[in-house]
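User: Sequence in, structure out. Go.
Assistant: Echoing your sequence, followed by the structure tokens.
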Amino acid sequence: MQIPRRVYDWQVPFAFALVCLVTAAWRDPARELLRYDRLATADGEIWRLLTGHFVHLGLQHLLLNLAGLALVWLLVGRRYGTKQWLYVAAISIVATGAGFWWLDTDLRWYVGLSGMLHGLLLAGAIQGIRWARWESVAICVLVVAKLAFEQFVGPLPGSEVAAGGPVVVNAHLYGAVGGVLSAAVYWRSARPPAYI
């Protein structure tokens, strides 16, 4: 029996959401064990560079990130295949972790999907530009404007209240860099999807 295409298209965000929901069910112990923590990472707990993206400050933060994941998927989810999306996500996560480790040496801890989400959104939007999609250009412009605002002014107004805690804006920047790098790798090799 073949899985309907509509369900198949959503398997990547469903998988990420499931991991986040499982870690959320463990609450504080999972957050303490899995979050990016500079001191613990320096002591050899290097998994935190990856797992910190799948734990959250609380239910409000989790729901905000899952809504963001759904929105990203609605906007650009058909731009790549499953394996390509997993690669984009991995590069965005690695870029975020590397940025934290080498550039944000004062950052003590981090949780959340937002770095990866920015990478996914930009990678998908850049891929859409190949086929002259005006909305892809608009997404890229808006994301770059948001990143610039965050770098020069700080978190978007209300974002810390919505997340239920501090917003690490550099996570967005590093994740976006990962998305751009991923899009560059796939620029020539990806074929246009049936619906972009």
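User: And one key feature?
Assistant: The radius of gyration is 16 Å.
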